[in-house]
């Protein structure tokens, strides 16, 4: 996977977004469920599946919610509260298939919404920040 080349702003934006998505997908490709939930350096909860779930939430927050219709932000995995579960990083093998499907679903929704904004300085409907900012 190559990083995006020079070009217009939208091409660079979409190129970097695709690049980072595909790098994570490639890192996960071919791994077993057990490998995807193996912690990188215990006691840290960081796992590849946790990163996939975290990216799912970021697709939701920074693109799907921000560029979608006005309304409340509904996180993919649940409400994050001090001392509560870290829904994206508290993972086990039973979550692998659904987590990847949700990530791809958010990616498709984000891409579709991004296409509806011809100008990157247009305010997003959800958070009213520019598409460029999101």
Describe the structure in your own words.
- By secondary structure, this protein is mainly α.
- Helices cover 48% and strands 0% of the residues.
Show the helix and strand layout.
Blueprint: H1 9-28, H2 33-36, H3 48-67, H4 96-115
Helix pairs in contact: 1-3, 3-4
| SSE string | HHHH
Roughly how many Å apart are the termini? 24 Å
Return the average pLDDT rounded to an integer. Answer: 92
Describe the main β-sheet briefly.
none
Please report the total strand number as a whole number.
Answer: 0
Helix count from the secondary structure assignment: 4
Helix content: 40-55%
**Low-confidence segments:** none
Radius of gyration equals 16 Å
Shape: globular
Secondary structural class: mainly alpha
Strand % is under 5%
Descriptive labels:
134 residues, mainly alpha, 0% strand
Concise account of the structure shown:
By secondary structure, the protein is mainly α. The protein has 4 helices and no strands.
């Amino acid at each position: 996977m190559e990083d995006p080349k020079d070009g217009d702003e939208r091409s660079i934006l979409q190129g970097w977004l695709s690049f980072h998505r595909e790098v994570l997908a490639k890192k996960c490709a071919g791994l077993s469920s057990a490998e995807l939930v193996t912690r990188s350096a215990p006691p840290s909860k960081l796992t590849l599946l946790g990163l996939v779930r975290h990216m799912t939430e970021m697709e939701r927050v920074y693109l799907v919610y921000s560029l979608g219709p006005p309304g409340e932000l509904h996180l993919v995995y649940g409400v994050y509260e001090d001392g509560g579960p870290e829904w994206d990083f508290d993972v086990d093998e039973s979550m692998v298939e659904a987590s990847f499907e949700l990530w791809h679903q958010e990616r498709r929704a984000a891409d579709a919404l991004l296409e509806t904004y011809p100008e990157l300085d247009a305010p997003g409907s959800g958070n009213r920040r520019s598409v460029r900012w999101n």
